[in-house]
Write a structure and sequence with these properties.
With about 150 residues, the chain is α+β, with helices and mostly antiparallel strands. The chain has two helices and seven strands.
Length: about 150
Amino acid sequence: MTERLPQQKDLTGLCDGASIAVLKDRRVLLVRRASPPYAGLWSLPGGKTEANETAQDAVRRELNEETGIEAEIEGVVDTKIVPDEGGDSITYRLTVFYGRPTGGRLEAGGDAEAAEWVHLDNVEALPMTPGTVDLIWVAARRARMP
């Protein structure tokens, strides 16, 4: 599922980021993005990695900022190269994790205008950021969601 890039692409200007598929009871935690890129679309919680921060630290911080939820990271779904919204340039090297909630109270915050637990049967009906539905299904399989 990892996207391959033409070898002539210069990857030195990439920003690192991380997101997470938090799963419980055949539901996944999603956020609706308030800001570009992809404003108004549903996605996995996540964001940019800050200086001296690991991808795991970044995803825990972003998850809490955007949803109020804390989670245990169980594994990696994929590492993707994500172009900007227009698709003209490459902007992020995104590590996508999966895990289960360990605490917190659901409340949208940060750059999320909404945060919801969405049943896996309903994810394909939502307007999503590109590739998110596939990542959710890979995460659900790896987490052994029935």
